[in-house]
Amino acid sequence: MTEVDVKKPQGGTVDRGGYFLFTLAVLVLGWVIAAANTGISYLTPGTEVIPIVTGFIGCLVLAVALRFLHRAWWLAALSVLPSLFVLIGSVQYAREAALDHRGVRETVRITADSAESDGGSNHRFTLVGPSGKLKETLDYGGDHPQWKVGDRLVVISDPDGAIPLEAASDIDPGGRLASLLAGVAGWTGITLLAGRRGFVRRRAGRRPLFDDAG
Questions:
Q1: pTM
Q2: Tens digit of pLDDT for each residue in 9-21?
Q3: Helices (DSSP H) in the chain: which residue ranges?
């Protein structure tokens, strides 16, 4: 009778305390990325490009860290959804909170739309308020703006001129903060799960392939 030798994966020895610290480090990394990108948005109120780029890089860094923590990609892939919340919240919250706090509100009337003359999809609405024509325009990129010539609306302008004028109906710092916190909460839950599963995988001696989904 021939005996068949079945090789089983050998379990590994994993330092529980060290892995807890690894998990904690990734957890703190996510919090730092969210806070730092919000700070960058606050320091660069005149443009969204910089915090969008830095936020995107930060989200990629966290995804890679989650992959190493978990030893598989699927939880890192799941982090994309909360990353979107963090990115939107961190980019928009600082500028909208600043406008809401120090901005000047006034009721204006739209007297012209640049898209009517050039036929483009980028709308620059000319505004006239109680004191006359405003220097700033209300800008909208797209084919179906919510405003048209003749409409009246409330706008908020930055007296320092650092933040572009916005319609008051679009300013919602509370909602942006909620989005940011929801994204951070999602990152926190995914990181804790990744730490738990990664510890179990390493203790069991499992060495997944690069594209392992388990």
A1: 0.79
A2: 444 566 777 778 9
A3: 16-43, 49-70, 74-78, 80-102, 114-118, 173-203
